[in-house]
Design a protein that fits this description.
Number of helices: 5
Distance between the termini: 77 Å
Low-confidence stretches: 98-102, 104-112
Largest sheet: 4 strands, antiparallel
Number of strands: 8
Strand order of the largest sheet: 1-2-3-6
Shape: rod-shaped
Helix content: 40-55%
Order of helices and strands: HHHHHEEEEEEEE
Length: about 290
């Protein structure tokens, strides 16, 4: 069965396989599992193989202490003496002088040289699991860092929006503080929730500051503001709302078009039109 993600069991089997600590049956079963194509276990085994390969070079060599050297010398001397112990002589039974008996060798005590390897294997398994835990912790920390970065980006975006709102407020107040200011409140021919716009007209400064609440324009469309005179409808400029539907624009007011009777907003093809091509969304008399 292929694994969809890393499990504690798959990590343990891969670590023991890399250390050569699995039984023959378990090792063969893991080989079959890898041949069947399990990318999760294959990646785990490669990483544990790298860890095992680095263990031999990751520690500086150190000279053994005098106690260890003496203990090793005694151990070697004991094993040599047991290996070369003279054969025990067998006394023949009386009355059977012609029967020769082969000497019986003393049974030597099994060597316990496998103990250091078992200790080393246990250490490697512990190190492998420590490495896996470190990697999991590192992934968790990375996720927390990414989340913190996302939160910081959101805060910066909010700060940028607040700065824009402050700049808009300053411009609107500069118009309202003028003795020649006018305010045109646009509304729909019929009630339209979510649609509104206000024009702050600096008459002496010949400029319009437009603040609008409009839904996102459909693909390939844009909102367009119009100066409406008795003879014509003249484009004042385009309004592009942000992701929250807030539109803001500072537009020059031409001095050569004569008096206006109204201002209006329509939805036009991208880039704007020379004349309105759709019904009026918002309008205000001037």
């Amino acid at each position: 069965m292929k694994h969809e993600s890393i499990t504690k069991e798959s990590q343990e089997v891969a670590a023991l396989y890399a250390l050569g600590a699995l039984s023959q049956h378990e090792a063969r079963a893991f080989d079959v599992h890898l041949r069947d194509g399990c990318p999760v276990c294959d990646l785990e085994l490669k990483q544990f193989n790298e860890v095992v390969g680095l263990l031999g070079t990751s520690v500086e060599p150190a000279a053994p202490s005098g106690y260890v050297r003496d203990l090793l010398a005694v151990r070697i001397q004991r094993e040599v003496s047991e290996t070369h112990r003279p054969a025990t002589t067998v006394i023949p039974f009386p009355g059977q002088p012609g029967i020769a008996h082969a000497p019986v060798k003393a049974r030597s005590t099994p060597s316990r040289s496998w103990l250091p390897w078992a200790v080393a294997a246990a250490f490697l398994v512990a190190f492998a699991f420590s490495f896996a835990a470190w990697r999991t912790t590192r992934s968790t920390l990375q996720a927390e860092v990414d989340q913190t970065r996302g939160s910081a980006a959101a805060v910066l975006s909010e700060n940028a929006e607040l700065k824009e709102q402050l700049a808009e407020t300053v411009q609107i107040n500069s118009v309202l503080s003028s003795s020649s200011s006018r305010v045109l409140q646009l509304a729909g021919p019929e009630p339209a929730p979510g649609l509104s716009a206000t024009v702050y007209w600096d008459v002496l400064g010949s400029r319009w500051i437009v603040a609008a609440n409009l839904p996102p324009a459909p693909e390939g469309k844009v909102y367009q503001l119009w100066f409406v005179t008795a003879e014509a409808k003249i484009s004042a400029g385009l309004i592009r709302p942000d992701r929250l539907g807030h539109g803001f624009a500072t537009l020059p007011f031409p001095t050569d078009i004569g008096p206006i009777t109204a201002t209006a907003i329509t939805l036009e093809p991208e880039g704007g039109s020379e004349q309105p091509t759709t019904p009026i969304l918002l309008i205000a008399n001037a």
